[in-house]
């Protein structure tokens, strides 16, 4: 039995029964959190000194396209409906070879771990079964806990988008699950659905039925930008044909233009929402769905979305999402000539949306998302004694507002240390780095896009 004690840290458990503890220990055995308390026995255990550190659950990114990592830094000035759809979905994704899918996913996963995200939903566009296999290999080799989400292939935008009548490649998905995912404790299967925004009613329902048959999470891009124009499905309204099929196994990415009535219907059915605030504000998706979901009694989650445009750091999404919501909530009072005297979303709220709420959206709330005995030990440690973080009067506010990735100096996934003293331990960081860069350069060169 492997045994680890994280010793004398400020524990932000995000478990309401445990709360926040000063100078506390976390005992981990065989990847499971066994006990949280003071003065726990260190017999036969590796001891990790957490003094002057904040100890909390790893972040959960509920929506990201990891394979875009080697083309990072190209989409920061792109709009969604023009450059992104034309250049990324209509061009670059079709150029990916299986090794490109592997290298993008590998370094995307490593970036996630370096920045404190221990779980991510990786929304993938595998051109072939081999692309999907190598993308899953990347997640495994990175050491990330992940929902590999098999979406429409990226080889033919006209075939897979624009009111498509072609269903997801069922046999490829079944083969990938059986061969690569079923027996891996860190991996689970998701299906990346287009929904009635982008495919026919029959196709949308058939894909969701397939996900349910496989016991897979359904992640659907819906309700952003002007996807309801005649170029796509001009008969689509709200959830369209999926309205009677919603449930807790459905996660909606974006949802910016859903009405409050639509959101209420979805929340009542148990649907989760992934807001990706930085990308949504840049690319023209619309106002993040945060406020509508909260008004409906739900709890949204955060995601990065496209690493071709922005950093994979989840603390940025926590801040941007929180402060954007506050700005929008404050503005009506200011316009009425009233002073803002209370904020309706807190630092702890946004941290929960990046941890336990993300875990709930991915169907993992009984495994991860809080430091709770019986859950898996996905844990991060934040240096609270750096000149940029000390004195950490409020541990939660320090994590949300003050830190950068370098302050996350220790990361554990399933009890295994993957980042120690600020350095990732995975040799792939250096061993595969040149291939990673070469992959990105080739994709951009072959795409012919003008940067």
Automatic annotation (TrEMBL):
<dbReference type="InterPro" id="IPR006680">
    <property type="entry name" value="Amidohydro-rel"/>
</dbReference>
<dbReference type="Pfam" id="PF01979">
    <property type="entry name" value="Amidohydro_1"/>
</dbReference>
<dbReference type="InterPro" id="IPR011059">
    <property type="entry name" value="Metal-dep_hydrolase_composite"/>
</dbReference>
<protein>
    <submittedName>
        <fullName>Amidohydrolase family protein</fullName>
    </submittedName>
</protein>
<feature type="domain" description="Amidohydrolase-related">
    <location>
        <begin position="54"/>
        <end position="418"/>
    </location>
</feature>
<dbReference type="InterPro" id="IPR032466">
    <property type="entry name" value="Metal_Hydrolase"/>
</dbReference>
<dbReference type="InterPro" id="IPR050287">
    <property type="entry name" value="MTA/SAH_deaminase"/>
</dbReference>
């Amino acid at each position: 039995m492997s045994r680890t004690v994280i010793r004398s840290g400020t524990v932000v458990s995000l478990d309401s029964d445990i709360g926040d503890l000063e100078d506390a220990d976390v005992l981990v055995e065989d990847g499971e959190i066994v006990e949280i308390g003071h003065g726990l026995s260190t017999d036969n255990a590796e001891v990790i000194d957490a003094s002057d550190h904040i100890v909390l659950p790893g972040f959960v990114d509920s929506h990201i396209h990891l394979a875009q990592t080697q083309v990072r830094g190209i989409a920061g000035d792109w709009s969604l409906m023009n450059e992104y759809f034309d250049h990324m979905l209509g061009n670059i994704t079709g150029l990916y070879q299986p090794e490109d899918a592997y290298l993008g996913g590998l370094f995307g996963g490593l970036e996630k771990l370096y920045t404190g995200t221990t779980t991510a939903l990786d929304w993938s566009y595998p051109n072939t079964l081999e692309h999907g296999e190598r993308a899953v290999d990347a997640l495994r080799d990175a050491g990330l806990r992940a929902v590999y989400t098999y979406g429409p292939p990226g080889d033919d935008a006209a075939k897979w988008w624009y009111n498509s009548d072609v269903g997801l490649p069922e046999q490829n998905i079944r083969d990938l699950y059986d061969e690569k995912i079923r027996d891996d404790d860190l991996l689970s299967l998701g299906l990346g659905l287009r929904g009635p925004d982008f495919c026919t009613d029959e196709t949308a329902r058939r894909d969701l039925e397939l996900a349910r048959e496989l016991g897979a999470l359904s992640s659907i891009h819906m309700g952003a930008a002007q996807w309801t124009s005649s170029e796509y499905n001009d008969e689509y309204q709200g959830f369209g044909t999926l309205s009677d099929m919603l449930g807790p196994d459905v996660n909606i990415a974006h949802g910016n233009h859903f009405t409050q009535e639509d959101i209420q219907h979805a929340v009542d059915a148990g649907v989760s929402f992934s807001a990706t605030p930085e990308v949504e504000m840049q690319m023209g998706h619309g106002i993040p769905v945060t406020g509508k979901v909260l008004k409906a009694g739900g709890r949204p989650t955060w995601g990065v979305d496209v690493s071709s445009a922005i950093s994979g750091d989840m603390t940025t999404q926590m801040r941007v999402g929180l402060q954007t919501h506050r700005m929008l909530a404050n503005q009506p009072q200011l316009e009425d000539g009233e002073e803002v005297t209370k904020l309706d979303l807190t630092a702890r709220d946004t941290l929960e949306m990046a941890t336990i709420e993300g875990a709930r959206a991915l169907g993992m709330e009984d495994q991860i998302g809080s430091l709770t005995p019986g859950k898996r030990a996905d844990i991060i440690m934040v240096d609270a004694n750096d000149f940029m973080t000390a004195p950490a009067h409020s541990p939660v506010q320090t994590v949300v507002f003050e830190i950068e990735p370098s302050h996350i100096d220790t990361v554990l996934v399933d009890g295994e240390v993957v980042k120690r003293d600020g350095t990732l331990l995975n040799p792939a960081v250096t061993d595969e780095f040149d291939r990673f860069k070469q992959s990105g350069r080739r994709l951009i060169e072959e795409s012919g896009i003008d940067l």
